[in-house]
Amino acid sequence: MSVQRTDRLNSLLREVITEVIKKDVRNPYVSEMTTVTRVDITKDLRHAKVYVSIMGTGAEKEDTLQALRSAAGFIAVNSSQKVVMRFFPELTFVLDDSVDRQMRIESLLREIEDEKSTRSEESDDNDESSSE
Fold it and tell me: Where exactly are the structural domains of the chain?
């Protein structure tokens, strides 16, 4: 199967699975702040990793991930009704922490910029006092 077709199928599955999680899954442990970031389907179309980003505490993330894993069959059945495929893939949910890592990196970069500006202000103050 071509890479372009696989990419289109991954994108379609991401949209359909997102819709099923938002509209059909009624588990109270599934956080409202759950986003399907990407789907990677295997070449044989039998398995798909579903990467989800979950906003919240560590316990909320773990509870949501467990709830999604236990509802994987339900999600697959409902999704298969919206996507015509000979075999619908078995879904495996994986936590995508790339958003958390990106926020941490941006925070560190801000701290570095703040430190640089503080140091340059101090050196400017020292230059002014030594010239007097």
Answer: 1-96
Over the stretch 81-112, which tens digit does the pLDDT of each residue have? 999 888 999 999 999 988 788 888 999 999 99
Query: Distance between CA atoms of 37 and 50, rounded to whole angstroms?
Result: 8
Token look-up 């495929």 returns 85
- How is 34-68 classified by DSSP, letter by letter? EEEEEEEE-TTSSEEEEEEEE-S-HHHHHHHHHHH
Q: What is the pTM of this model?
A: 0.77
Residue 60, Cβ density class (10 Å: 0-12 exposed, 13-18 middle, ≥19 buried): middle
Fold annotation for 1-96: GMP Synthetase; Chain A, domain 3 (3.30.300)
